[in-house]
């Protein structure tokens, strides 16, 4: 009896590949189109897992796609959250002032004193807090959009279960005489 | 007959819920500028909610008369297409799963436009970008609907099987 293929391998391959891509400043703009990079991560993990399932003779269904997409999305979140945060810090991008500018540009009404207090706290944490916040959002978005990508991949690359091969009884011996 | 009706009702309920959520999400895209135009604080917060998934550059957002939408024209097309496809699947209560090649065909214009934009080449207009994204979102919605229906049916079948197994043991 064949063993069901491991879900971890496709999730790791896809999560790491897309996570690295998602932490590179220009490439991660792809996420501006409905988190396309994260959806692609779940979708690609589903594709890889469906291939493994087909080779092993196992069914691959949308539920499997959702699960592998979720795991890949979480791996994406960890990789892009940490690596992206480090790259942004090294390049001097994504600092708290930029975030405040974005919040103000969106028109959200926040008390300036509250913003000042938060800014002071963020500056005193020396960038670590920004990385942790980035990691949190990357994990949440990775889980949601990775699962959606995995669900879509689960439907696109569906593998139906193989019908069990029935053993045929040997033909009766020819009549003697 | 009763069992299949029950499964049919469950799939319809799940699809209805997911479609409702997708509808709310899509409606928020229009609601955010409308609220902002009516001096509501909620408009800004709602716009912020869509920030992680879209660049929200005003020039690239559709404007229905009360300010730029909360997401760009491409994202609006994807959301609306996905919601309509989910709605269609929920109403029919039957999955439609187009051949995967359609995904490549439908995604091509949006991908090409995105790549052109990244290389600084002239990009399409907002309504054209919206129109190109609409079928891509629709196809994704059809696949999502198919996946949800299958998951519900499989789980319902498993429940029935377990119930029968328990019954036969008891």
What is shown here, in short?
The complex is a heterodimer of chains A (177) and B (170). With 177 residues, chain A is mainly α.
Low-pLDDT segments, ≥5 res of chain B: none
Give the H and E element order of chain A. HHHHHH
**Oligomeric state:** heterodimer
End-to-end separation of chain B in angstroms reads: 25 Å
Tell me what the structure shows.
The relative contact order of chain A is 0.20. Chain A is 67% helix and 0% strand. In chain A, helix 1 packs parallel to helix 3 and helix 2 (36-56) crosses helix 3 (62-91). Chain A has one domain (8-156). The two termini of chain A are 44 Å apart. Chain A has helices at 8-23, 36-56, 62-91, 96-105, 112-124, 128-156. Chain B is mainly α and 170 residues long. Chain B has one domain (2-162). Chain B is 74% helix and 0% strand. Chain B contains 5 helices and no strands. The radius of gyration of chain B is 20 Å and the shape is globular. Chain B starts with a helix and ends with a helix. Classes of the chains: A mainly alpha (177), B mainly alpha (170). Chains A and B meet through helix 3 and helix 6 of A and helix 2, helix 3, helix 4 and helix 5 of B.
């Amino acid at each position: 009896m064949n063993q069901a293929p491991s879900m971890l391998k496709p999730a790791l391959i896809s999560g790491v590949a897309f996570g690295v891509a998602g932490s590179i400043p220009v490439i991660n703009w792809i996420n501006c189109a409905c988190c396309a990079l994260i959806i692609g991560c779940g979708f690609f993990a589903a594709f890889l897992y469906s291939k493994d399932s087909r080779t092993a003779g196992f069914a691959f269904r949308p539920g499997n796609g959702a699960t592998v997409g979720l795991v890949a999305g979480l791996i994406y979140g960890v990789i892009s959250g940490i690596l992206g945060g480090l790259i942004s810090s090294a390049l001097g991008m994504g600092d708290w002032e930029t975030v405040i500018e974005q919040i103000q540009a969106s028109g959200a009404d926040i008390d300036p004193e509250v913003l000042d207090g938060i800014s002071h706290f963020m500056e005193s944490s020396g960038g670590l807090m920004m990385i942790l916040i980035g990691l949190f959002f990357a994990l949440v978005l990775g889980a949601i959009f990775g699962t959606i990508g995995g669900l879509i991949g689960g439907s696109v690359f569906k593998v139906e279960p193989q019908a069990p091969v029935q053993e045929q009884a040997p033909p009766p011996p020819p009549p003697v005489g | 007959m009763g069992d299949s009706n029950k499964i049919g009702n469950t799939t319809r309920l799940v699809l209805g819920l997911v479609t409702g959520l997708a509808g709310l999400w899509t409606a928020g895209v229009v609601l955010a500028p409308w609220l902002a135009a009516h001096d509501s604080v909620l408009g800004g917060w709602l716009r912020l909610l869509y920030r992680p998934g879209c660049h929200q550059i005003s020039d690239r957002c559709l404007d229905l008369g009360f300010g730029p939408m909360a997401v760009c024209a491409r994202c609006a097309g994807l959301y609306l297409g996905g919601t309509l496809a989910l709605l269609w699947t929920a109403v029919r209560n039957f999955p439609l799963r187009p051949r995967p090649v359609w995904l490549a065909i439908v995604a091509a214009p949006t991908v090409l436009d995105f790549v052109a934009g990244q290389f600084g080449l002239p990009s399409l207009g907002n309504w054209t970008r919206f129109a190109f994204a609409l079928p891509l979102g629709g196809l994704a919605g059809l696949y999502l609907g198919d996946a949800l229906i299958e998951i519900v049916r499989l789980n319902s079948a498993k429940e029935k099987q377990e119930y029968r197994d328990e019954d036969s043991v008891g």
